[in-house]
Amino acid sequence: MRCGTFKEPGLCRNDQIQLLEADLKDHIRKEEAGYSGKRQGEGSLWHHLVRVAHLAEKLGRSEGLDPAVCRLAGLFHDAGKFSDGTYHQGDRPEEERSVELLIEYAGRYGLNQQIVDDISRSFGQLYRDEAYPSALTRVLFDADNLDKLGSLGIANYFVKSGLKGNGISPDSLYRLTAELTYARHAPACMATPAGYELASRKAPETYQFILNLLKSLRDDGIFNFSVEAVTFDHLILDVVSPSECECRADLQRRLWKVKGVKCLEIHVEHFCPHCESRHEIRFCTPKLRARRPEGDVAV
């Protein structure tokens, strides 16, 4: 981390950097434990922040940005997710709390004010969907989304499902609709050339892993889920659903959009007119930055 990251050159020491990150790690773990109601452990959020920080450093170098600033942005971008042991309390985007935490830590560890302002602005642009985001915002956006792709990305999806008590269950399989849809459109959503190249390599790996998993579950007679490409609002969705309801009746499907806290959400509902069972998932609409032929990357 460069000395310019701190207000005073004397603060530019490895031990100071390590203290900041250790302090933030402890805070993140405590708040996630408070939200989950489980004993404080490693959790999943801190590992996500570290992975995004590494990706942001890598992408930042390709964009000519200071990798130290990109790393800080990655570490703090979701730091407010479980603020005071809650999640989106009052429909408040976690980025707003992340900015507050960044300012708090900036005062505690003497971070340069201009860097704090640049990172704070990038957090706001992430969820406000501004037409002309800063270079740091573009790097952070790509790093956050790249973390969901590839073998590690899909592995972490199931780790989080396990932490929520689901594991490989019907609920987690329904939700693979979002993971497949994101993988299909990932390269076209990237905001940097380096992000596009990485997504083009990682997305097919994600897509094929999920298809192989569903096939294995069908072959073993565990879950009979399959994938159907569905066009909705000019966007191809990869909808994961069982061939029939547990009561053996045919399922019906409904899709619609709703403005969420941070994005325009796609809602997918499967329901059975016979036993009246229902299952609904929701996820943010992929932000396509460059119109490309549908399905040319992952499928």
Explain what you see.
The structure is a single chain. The protein has 299 residues and is α+β, with helices and mostly antiparallel strands. Helices cover 52% and strands 13% of the residues. The chain has ten helices and five strands, in the order H-H-H-H-H-H-H-H-H-H-E-E-E-E-E. The protein has a three-stranded antiparallel β-sheet with strand order 3-4-5, with no helix packed on it. Strands 1-2 form a two-stranded antiparallel ribbon. A hairpin with a 2-residue loop joins strand 1 and strand 2. Helix 3 packs across helix 5 and helix 6 packs parallel to helix 10. It is globular and about 65 Å long. It starts with 13 loop residues before the first helix and ends in a 15-residue tail after the last strand. About 2% of the residues have low confidence.
Can you give me a brief rundown of this structure?
The protein has 299 residues and is α+β, with helices and mostly antiparallel strands. The protein contains ten helices and five strands, in the order H-H-H-H-H-H-H-H-H-H-E-E-E-E-E.
Number of strands: 5
Morphology call: globular
Order of adjacent strands in the largest pleated sheet:
3-4-5
H/I helix tally: 10
Q: Main β-sheet: number of strands, strand sense, barrel status?
A: 3 strands, antiparallel
Radius of gyration: 20 Å
SSE sequence, one letter per element: HHHHHHHHHHEEEEE
Mean of all residue-level pLDDT scores: 85
Residue runs with pLDDT of under 50 for 5 or more positions: 291-296
Strand proportion:
5-15%
Q: How much helix is in the residues?
A: 40-55%
Distance between the termini: 40 Å
Which structural class matches the secondary elements? alpha+beta
